[in-house]
Amino acid sequence: SRPQKVCLCPFLPIHPLKVSTCLYIIQHPAEESRVLRTVPLLAACLPPDKCKILVGRRFSEDRYPELATVCRNPNTLILYPGAEATNLEEVAMMSSSPSVMIIIDGTWSQAKDIFYKNSLFRLPRQVQLKPNYSSQYVIRTQPTNTCLSTLECAAVALTIMEKNKSIQETILHPLQALCSFQLQHGAQIHHSKEHLLKNGLYDKPMPKNKRKLRRMELLVNNVKI
């Protein structure tokens, strides 16, 4: 669906990756209209039965019985950072059975809204990634240096769950190509909001909302949010 000279097909795996972990991507409707979204690249790297995408804001048990069953499965994990989350590496060490992982796709505020307003998503075990990774999605601004795109989260998570380091490299390959093409055609590198604030480069008006202003102060002072 892209012009031939910027086609990403050569950067995708020849055959879908063989993984035992099944991903459920819960996508906010606003993501569907984003031109440079990463979930289609992720889906192109995996077998259809290992990457299922559900679009919406609200997910009730009546409307999504399959998702409800998945959420009640003891082997299901949801990737969402917070005080209740366990590091994924610890969970992977203790588990040998195939797992299901739920990942919410949207901006941080959209993901937060989906997570807290859908009780189903608090049934699975909550996990998070260690902040050891820097985003390679350089054509889109992230809140902090360690905030990752949905594709990057999935790549790291699958590498941990499948205990196969090559998975991350394979899934990130089309993202790297996408960013390279965009930069060649006039896109600019986007530093994180954290980087801009700390270096006095943030050129937008500061928010009047006290809560948002407080979050910016925390970013500047290296406080985890």
UniProtKB/TrEMBL annotation:
Alphabetized UniProt keyword annotations:
S-adenosyl-L-methionine, Transferase, tRNA processing
Q: Which GO molecular function entries does the Swiss-Prot or TrEMBL record give? A: tRNA-uridine aminocarboxypropyltransferase activity
**Which family does the similarity line name?**
Belongs to the TDD superfamily. DTWD2 family.
Q: Which residues form a coiled coil?
A: none
The chemistry this enzyme catalyses reads: a uridine in tRNA + S-adenosyl-L-methionine = a 3-[(3S)-3-amino-3-carboxypropyl]uridine in tRNA + S-methyl-5'-thioadenosine + H(+)
Q: Repeat: present as a keyword of the record?
A: no
Keyword set includes NADP: no
Show where the DTW domain sits: 1-187
Its EC number(s): 2.5.1.25
InterPro entries, per the entry? DTW, DTWD2/TAPT
Name of the protein in question: tRNA-uridine aminocarboxypropyltransferase
What's one GO BP annotation on this UniProt entry?
tRNA processing
- Native species of this protein? Campylorhamphus procurvoides
Query: What Pfam families does its record include?
Result: DTW
Going by the entry's taxonomy, the superkingdom of the source organism is recorded as: Eukaryota
Residues making up the signal peptide according to the UniProt record: none
